[in-house]
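dumping the sequnces here before i forget
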Amino acid sequence: VTQNIYDNAGFFAGYAQLRRSVDGLDGAPEWPTLKSMLPDVRSKRVVDLGCGFGWFCRWAREAGAASVLGLDVSANMLTRARETTADPAITYWQADLETVELPAASFDLAYSSLTLHYLVNLAALFGAVHRALAPGGRFVFSAEHPLYTEPGPDYLDEGPRTTDWLAKGVVKQHRTLAGYLNLLIDAGFAVRRVEEWGPTRDEIAAHPEWKIDHRRPSFLLVSATR
Amino acid sequence: VTQNIYDNAGFFAGYAQLRRSVDGLDGAPEWPTLKSMLPDVRSKRVVDLGCGFGWFCRWAREAGAASVLGLDVSANMLTRARETTADPAITYWQADLETVELPAASFDLAYSSLTLHYLVNLAALFGAVHRALAPGGRFVFSAEHPLYTEPGPDYLDEGPRTTDWLAKGVVKQHRTLAGYLNLLIDAGFAVRRVEEWGPTRDEIAAHPEWKIDHRRPSFLLVSATR
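..and the predicted 3d for all of it:
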């Protein structure tokens, strides 16, 4: 069972102040790369797995998606998401992504941003997404990069990692990059593109407040086809 | 142009004494995993890219391959490889893997062990391999893992790395894991399996002479389909 840290009041308050929470997609440094891996969403039926405040759901509709279903386990997040739109083509459901069942072959694009590294049973979700996509449908996601979740000598040991980030005892699931890809392939997906996103040297120089001096990746971005 | 370090006398002398050179496939700790990623080779036409002493070529024939072509840039390696077999179904060619042209759709399996991380123009080889494989043909390879070639903070900076291993100034080409996979996908391959191989905790405990205390991967193993 995945920890629902987003309904922890302290965590939620901190999360709501992150740049990506305040400014949305434009506040996420990896968004331009992730966006470049998306298909044209016009007239597409879209599902967002871990939709948070709904920034991507609203973006997809503005970009012409026919409908968007946003799923999240956090009641706090969904309350905020629902407050930000009156668009009848955007629906928000509270759902546990480890056990969610979606209607078969009903979506053209499944999207997920920085959610999958919380899930214990990722194979179950990948199977559900594969069934929920129409033939030729696309699955585009970001996750915390394995080298970010586990930068140390235990890279090959998959399993939970506990960190203090916005709250004490936040549990993330470490998987190797091969682990993510083999789960996708085993679920029936064809991998189309893999990106290991990290800041460029120019970005590091321009943001001394980031206090980083490395070109290790922070996000894993994957595009796959059903 | 790729450095041909294997025809450096000092390097070759050292290489010839490695356990994987003396004992062949059984002396390579990653071989059981790599072997598990191979198709049944019976009656298959096989090409080995960077065949070295020919250990895999001979194994493939013993396992029932119809024919095996071993390619290597090193005259030293090929001389030794030719001395070890009189099998008329094994052929050895000296070839630069960056510029080699192979007959179209003429192989069922392309194999490469710990060679690709030396190549500057890997895209050219992947294209040549794709053309050389029959439809449905398989490409299975190992390479030094990117975290082994570049364990430091510059993981995302692809390019040459110079090390002193068996000889001074050995040049390897660092690519990210995503870099390898995207080159494969761009060449038309479907990725079937990715393994990041490193020693198990038991192996580390059993081999104190390895002097390692980490579970970082040392080899990248990939299986793909044309």
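The mean pLDDT of chain A is 95.
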